Structure formats: structure tokens, C-alpha cells
Amino acid sequence: MSPERYTLGYDDAALAFVGRRTLQSHGAFFIECLQDGMQVLDVGCGPGSITVGIAACIGSGHVTGVDLSESQVQLAGQAAAEQDVPNARFQTGSAYELPFANAQFDAVFSHALLEHLSEPARAVREFLRVLRPGGVMGVATPDWSKFLYAPSSPALVAAIKAYEALQVANGGDVDIGHKMSQFAVDAGFEKVRQRARYENFEPLSIITDVLSATLEGAGQLEHARTLREWERTPHAMFAEAWVTCIGSRPGQT
Predict the structure, then answer these.
(1) Is 234 exposed, middle or buried (0-12, 13-18, 19+ CB in 10 A)?
(2) Quick one: angle between helices 180-187 and 120-130, nearest 10?
(3) Of the residues 22, 69, 85, 139, which has the fewest C-beta atoms closer than 10 A?
(4) C-beta of residue 75 within 8 angstroms of C-beta of residue 52
């Protein structure tokens, strides 16, 4: 098993990049699965920007956000308090050993987590374990093999591949997106459906800032410089491929 490390880290660039995500912008595929009164688990909740949206959708229900990082849990709790979201709470925990009883939740959600794990299938099995019969799982993860960027050049491709190599070295799988449905089926989920969409970054600095900062932190200054120079190209495009997967635990609620 490869060592695991969250490649983006928790510096200002990473927090800005992750914190801009909301349920409407990045978790919309799961809104149809949310109902008033549900007990929901958000695994890898980060700063809670999506979690608070889930809380609003389930009304009298309750959402629990879990993250391995204590700093992220604290930020998420502060965000919920500032936005007056009383039905969301946050705690530390590992996706491999969720600190909850069997069949405790009506829904499990996870966004942009599994691509950083060396054992994503193990995490998906944990999602099934904590779901009640008939409960629903929704996950979203990028698939770098389907990213689009233009105008391309050997230097730009090398810079992006350098970032991918960092994530793989940290235990992740940058091409996990299209594999999600098989993980779900193998774990025991039924009614599995997988879809894909593109996120276009405007301005490009949204994505190049975080990738460049990560590369700079790894000492790869030339690759970081390539990205920062490329983002100034007037007609440039960077489109991220997101894959979503929904599945249900067999049985009736």
C-alpha cells in the first residue's frame, strides 16, 4: 500500500480552491436523493462548504461531516456556526474506519476524496456498512485522463503530468473517476448509475493557482512557472472531468 497524503494540502490556495465548492455547484447530482428528516454522512467534508448545503436540503434531518484533518473539522464547524446551520456537526475520522455503527445513516455523500486514497474500494465498503437498508450513496471524483486543456504544449503537458505524479506518489489514483461504478457494484451496492460532466475554470487562475502552489511546494518551480504563464493566454481553456456515482444499499428502509 502506498503512503497516503492529501496532495493539495491546506495552504491558502488549497483552502480557497476547495472552499468555493457548494452543494449546488459540485453536489447537484445528489440533491434529488436528499429528503427532509434524513440522517446524512459527508465523508471528507473539508471546510464544510458542501455539507452546509446538505443541511439546508434535509430540513429536520441532520448531517454529520467527517474529515481526517482536525483543522478542516474546525473550519467546517465555524462555517456552520457563522451561517446559523444547527443541523450540521463535524468530527474527525477515517474513511477506512468510520466512527459510526452499522446502518446508521440514510445517505452517504463524498466529494473529491476517493482519488486521494490508496484503498478507495475499502472506503466504499465502509460507506455501505454505515448505510441503512435502502440507503443511498453519492460520490463524485475527477478523472484526470479525460481533462481538456488548450492550447496545449509539451511544457504544459509535462507540468500537469508532474502534478499527477505527485498525487500518485501520495497514494492516490488520478484516473479513478470511470472506475467508480465497479467499486460500488463490488462493494454490494445496487441500482448503480454513473455520469460525467465538465467543470470549466473561469478565470483559469482558480485551477492554476492551486496546482502551481502544490508544485512549488514540491520544489518543481519550472512546472509551476509554466502553468502561471499559460494562464495568461487569452483563449486558454481548462476543463475538469467529474464523474458521479449513485448507488443504493439493498433492502428496504
Answers:
(1) exposed
(2) 50
(3) 22
(4) no
**Residue 102 β-bridge partners:** none
> pLDDT below 70 — which residues of the chain?
1-3, 253
- Cell readout for 104 is 446508521
239 burial level (CB within 10 Å; 0-12, 13-18, 19+): middle
3-state secondary structure (DSSP) of residue 118: coil
Residue 175, all three cell numbers: 484516473
User: pLDDT tens digit string along 129-183?
Assistant: 999 999 999 999 999 999 999 999 999 999 999 999 999 999 999 999 999 999 9
CA 140/CA 157 separation, integer angstroms: 25
Q: What is the pTM of this model?
A: 0.96
Q: Are strands 148-150 and 131-142 parallel, antiparallel or unpaired?
A: unpaired
| Per-residue b or e along 211-231, where b marks 16 or more CB atoms closer than 10 Å to that residue's CB | bbbbbbbbebeebbebbbebb
Place of cell 448531517: 63
